[in-house]
Amino acid sequence: MARPGHSTAWLPLLVLLFAAGAAAQSGCLSATFTGGRTFLKCNQLPVLGASLHWTYHAGNGTADIAYTIYATVALPGNATSHNTVWQAGPISGGRVSQHSISGPNVQSLQRLDFLSGTSTGASNSRLHRRNLHGVLNGVGWGVLIPLGAMIARYLRVFEAADPAWFYLHIACQISGYALGVAGWGLGLKLGSESKGLTYTTHRSIGIAIFCLATLQVFALFLRPDKKNKYRVYWNAYHHSVGYSVIVLAAVNIFKGLNILKPATGWKTSYVVILATLAGVVLLLEAITWAVVLRRRKRNRAHAGANGTGVQL
Q1: Is 169 annotated as a binding residue?
Q2: Which pLDDT tens digit goes with each residue over 87-101?
Q3: What is the per-residue pLDDT across 220-253, written as a single tens digit (0 to 9) for each?
């Protein structure tokens, strides 16, 4: 190993060192170093196949460390327990390129005690907020909004469900909108914290979903009476915007899953949810048309019996 320099860090320790992807030895204690360097302790890091070696100096509160790079860091207040973060990235043109921003690269953190050598999991608040952003949007835009649309389309044909279907529809849409907006706002916050990293398509679709869904909410207050001649135009607008939100939400949720790259089960679960909703839609569509056609036939028969039928 080459020694790039001797540095001292006075901030709370975040060992954010980039490596060329070196694999870990069978045991970190078996590692050897150039120049006859030795270290008293080591920690086999849980991800990225890496290890950290160090010698802690209690007298001046520093630690000599080795990670494909040598350095000396100062432990603030001579505290021995600190969050540590490490990364591994590819080499391109003799320089270290940007590492991955998903999978093990966002799991590479722990709390390390430089005195005892013990380590525990560290909190990754950003990862938690990213996951929360995904869950809020997935449940809000991806489940509740489609469910509310299904209630409006299929329950309203049953006379016994009136006006309960309307209140159920509103409850689902308002709840979905509230969760979706919360997730959308959290996404904007995460984006503002990620300088130089923008998921343009995902962000643009998210903004479009928010705008269209907000129009739907305001449209509720502008809904004309059923007998109003403009009601047909309002219905066309309401349905087209609503279905656009549903389609865009599904597309954006998959884009978000591709960005987060969570465990396979998350994407599989959402696919199962979509497939289930699609199956229910097909079944209810058939039932709805059967009910509508039967009702039309009954109304025509009733009109003919009363002598109000049209003579051809």
Answers
A1: yes
A2: 777 777 777 777 666
A3: 888 888 888 888 898 899 999 999 999 999 999 9
Q: What predicted TM-score, i.e. pTM, was given to this entire model?
A: 0.59
Distance from C-alpha of 296 to C-alpha of 65, rounded to nearest angstrom: 81
Ranges of each domain in the chain: 18-121, 126-304
Is residue 230 a contact partner of residue 255, using CB atoms and an 8 Å limit?
A: no
Encoded tokens for 136: 């809020």
- What letter represents residue 113's amino acid? D
Q: What is the pLDDT of residues 22-34, one digit of tens each?
A: 333 345 666 777 7
The pair of structure tokens assigned to 202 is 């995902």
C-alpha span between 274 and 288 (Å, rounded): 20
What is the dotted CATH code of the domain comprising 126-304?
1.20.120.1770
Q: Which tokens hold the place of 278?
A: 């699609």
The answer to the question of whether 238 is labelled as a binding residue is yes
Which residues, 6 or more positions from 100, have their beta carbon under 8 angstroms from its beta carbon?
89
Burial class (CB in 10 A: 0-12, 13-18, 19+), 296: exposed
Here the tokens at position 240 are: 């087209």
User: What residues contact 166, with CB distance under 8 A and at least 6 apart?
Assistant: 152, 156
Which three-class secondary structure string do you get for 137-149? HHHHHHHHHHHHH
Instruction: Give φ, ψ of 162 to 5 degrees.
Output: -90, 130
